[in-house]
Amino acid sequence: MGKLSKREARARRRKRVRNKVTGTPSRPRLSVYRSLNNIYAQVIDDFSGETLASASTVDKEIKGEIANGGNIDAAKVVGKYVAERALDEGVKTVVFDRGGNDYHGRIKALAEAAREGGLKF
Description:
By secondary structure, this protein is α+β, with helices and mostly antiparallel strands. It contains four helices and four strands.
């Protein structure tokens, strides 16, 4: 078997993470998706299939605060907003789903901002 492409390696990591990480009603999953130009975060209860809170760089109120949606500063703002919205829904603890991405750069910045915003994981 040859070397995996970047896309295939990420898909494998994502599948491996999702087999271990499941959101429950008491501790939902904070799922992060990162594209080239934007970053998205959702707090999901996997048992009911419900999104409890979400934030992304395409939201109108967040878009007004940032110049570019694809950098670390934007990820910090999204982390702050998703934590605020989750706390409004009564969610205090979550499990972190990095979506197959390395815990580095924008993913790390979003996670740390969510922790500073009051989420525990």
